[in-house]
Amino acid sequence: RLYKRQMMCRSDINSLNVPFLALYGSLIPPEEEKAKQKQLLTLLENLVNKEWPNAKLYLYGSCANSFGVSKSDIDVCLAIDETDMDKSEILLKLADILKSDNLQNVQALTRARVPIVKLMDPVTGISCDICINNLLAVVNTKLLRDYAQIDARLRQLAFIIKHWAKSRGVNETYQGTLSSYAYVLMCIHFLQQRRPAILPCLQEMESTYSVAVDDIECAFFDQVEKLHDFGHQNKETIAQLVWGFFYYWAYCHDYTSSVISVRTGTIISKREKDWTRRIGNDRHLICIEDPFEVSHDLGRVVDKFSIKVLREEFERAADVLQFDPNPCVKLFEPY
Ligand code: CTP
Ligand code: MG
How far is C-alpha 73 from the geometric centre of its chain's CA atoms? Predict the structure, then answer.
């Protein structure tokens, strides 16, 4: 690992720009898909408001953070101020309301880690998960969407990394690998620490948007249209950045003592967060701080077996991009 830390990327790395951008283009959802999602949201809103006139529905996750590929399911959050019902009761009631309409496979999963109602809309063909009052997810969705508008390379990079993670089987939290949300934060962090930087740190700037969600103050600069040339000093291409991302996670990140933090735009120490030892199931083998829920390590799902899998995959990807004669095929080869 030490010897590889000195490495430069291959001289013809830019020949990968065309295939990477073509892959990105093929993954972007077409406009009509967005319209169908809106249509389903409106239908759900009308049904919900008949029972709860003050309730609101928000899209979150990949359908709203601009990191969603074509044909994804949608994630919806029901914001409701219903003090005399607990979450399970609300979910069961919600499922009843939705079943009475023409929606299919309506199911309340009240015992899941994040309790939801699942459904499928036969008109648009879209599947949807509805959770209750998960407003932090709605706010972190906005943060990700705002970052994506600053420099086009973030969205390109994250699509390619997510596609790689799905192809290689390392996007499965129940198997100890990382969520899509974690991968996008890793991409944002990576672009924040490039020199010159490609992304700023929105939470360190003067706040123009602020909401309090369950005692957590979420504040950041959201006038991103003013940041359109932020990354212009940095001329790195998408191929260089994809290589750089894997190289960083394979050979440069200090897994023993570092935490990546999009909130501060830099690395912070595990010691500072008291993430140096295992507490319960949190092993902190790769540390990714949630931008708002700062006690939450998105790497907490990773165990001593899956950390090895992950690091070997980062190294494999860096080495494929460096040495393989056909890196674009090899990189995404099914595991
Ligand atoms: N989320 C969160 N905390 C987590 C995991 C997820 O707050 N530990 C929220 C985030 O708002 C995230 C959303 O749940 O955007 C959906 O998470 P995930 O399924 O990981 O990401 P998607 O962007 O929906 O990715 P995919 O395209 O793979 O569905
Ligand atoms: Mg999702």
Answer: 14
Q: What is the pLDDT along the chain (335 residues), one digit of tens a residue?
A: 666 666 788 999 999 999 999 999 999 999 999 999 999 999 999 999 999 999 999 999 999 999 999 999 999 999 999 888 999 999 999 999 999 888 999 999 999 989 999 999 999 999 999 999 999 999 999 999 999 999 999 999 999 999 999 999 999 999 999 999 999 999 999 999 999 999 999 999 999 999 999 999 999 999 999 999 999 999 999 999 999 999 999 999 999 999 999 999 999 999 999 999 998 889 999 999 999 999 999 999 999 999 999 999 999 999 999 999 999 999 999 99
What's the domain range around 227? 4-27+151-331
305 and 176: one domain? yes
Whole-number Å distance between alpha carbons of 43 and 314: 43
- Cα(141) to ligand 1 centroid in Å equals 8
Atom number of ligand 1 nearest to Cα 73: 29
Residues 324 and 258 in one domain: yes
Whether the complex's predicted ipTM is more than 0.90 is answered with yes
Q: Which helix (H) or strand (E) holds 314?
A: helix 306-323
Ligand nearest to the CA of 68: 1
How far does the centroid of ligand 1 lie from the alpha carbon of residue 239, in Å? 26
Q: Is 23:163 a contact under the CB 8 Å cutoff?
A: yes
